[in-house]
Amino acid sequence: MFSPSQQDVRRFFCQVYAKQLQGPLVDPLETLAAEWINRHPEYHAVLANEEDALQRDFDDTTGNPFLHLSMHLSISEQCSIDQPRGIRQAVELLAAKRPDLHSAHHEVMECLGTMLWESQRSGQPPDGQTYIDAVQRRATQD
């Protein structure tokens, strides 16, 4: 199981940003990460300075670009393998009701964050079905 450190995650996104400025990416994960980086130009200055990014403290008031991009990447990966089972369809339903996939992802992030928080609070494993149900509820609310 791959368990990157905070530094590993920050380094990964900074290096993907630098690589894409130099030319096309070949690694599929890097290509996917670059797509989400491109949708967040407000993070480019942070990503352009790897040394600063590795040292900087991000808090809830300023937002954490690495957490945000990691969540986009996680949701994309979840959908690609449909894990937890049903997440792909739930995200597709939500995206169909929103202006674009990016907007839908931001709503899915809230559901994912809640699921992870509940898991940590209760000491129980993450509840994938509750997560999917929360995404589906958002798709049916208008």
Based on the model shown, name its key terms.
single chain; 142 residues; 2 domains; mainly alpha
Short recap of the structure:
It is built from eight helices and no strands. The protein has about 140 residues and is mostly helical.
Q: Write down how many β-strands occur, each being a DSSP E stretch of 2 or more residues.
A: 0
Arithmetic mean of pLDDT: 93
Computed structural class: mainly alpha
Determine the number of helices (DSSP H or I, runs of at least 4 residues).
8
Shape: globular
In this structure, how is the largest beta sheet organized? none
First-to-last CA distance? 39 Å
Rg on CA atoms, Å: 16 Å
Report strand %. under 5%
Describe the oligomeric state of these chains in a short phrase.
Answer: single chain
Order of helices and strands: HHHHHHHH
Which percent bin holds the helix content? over 70%
Number of individual domains: 2
Account of the protein in words:
- Helix 6 (about 85-95) packs across helix 7 (about 100-120).
- The longest helix has 22 residues, at about 100-120.
- The protein has 2 domains: about 1-60, no CATH class; about 80-140, no CATH class.
- The mean pLDDT is about 95.
- It has 8 helices and no strands.
- It has about 140 residues and is mostly helical.
- It has helices spanning about 5-20, 30-40, 45, 50-55, 65-80, 85-95, 100-120, 130-140.
- It is globular, with a radius of gyration of 16 Å.
